[in-house]
Design a protein that fits this description.
By secondary structure, the chain is mainly α. It has one domain. About 80% of the residues lie in helices and about 0% in strands. The protein is built from three helices and no strands. Helix 1 (about 1-20) packs antiparallel against helix 3 (about 40-65). The protein is elongated and about 45 Å long.
């Protein structure tokens, strides 16, 4: 499980570096980001959100195991 979490964290970091912001900031500033085409931003946003959800899912699984 830790390997999967690390994988998702690396993917999340790639998006943070690409956009120089967190996902929350990305959502807020989506329409003001003019350096990347709309379709690419939409795809990135969906993938980024999924990576965060999956990471959080595995972290929750570990939390339940530990408790």
């Amino acid at each position: 499980m830790w390997k999967k979490i690390k994988h998702y964290e690396e993917k999340i970091k790639e998006f943070e570096l690409k956009y120089v912001m967190t996902y929350s900031e990305f959502e807020e500033k989506f329409h003001t980001i003019n350096t990347i085409k709309v379709f690419e931003k939409e795809d990135d946003g969906m993938i980024w959100e999924t990576e965060i959800s999956l990471r959080n899912h595995y972290l929750e699984m570990i939390k339940k195991i530990v408790e």
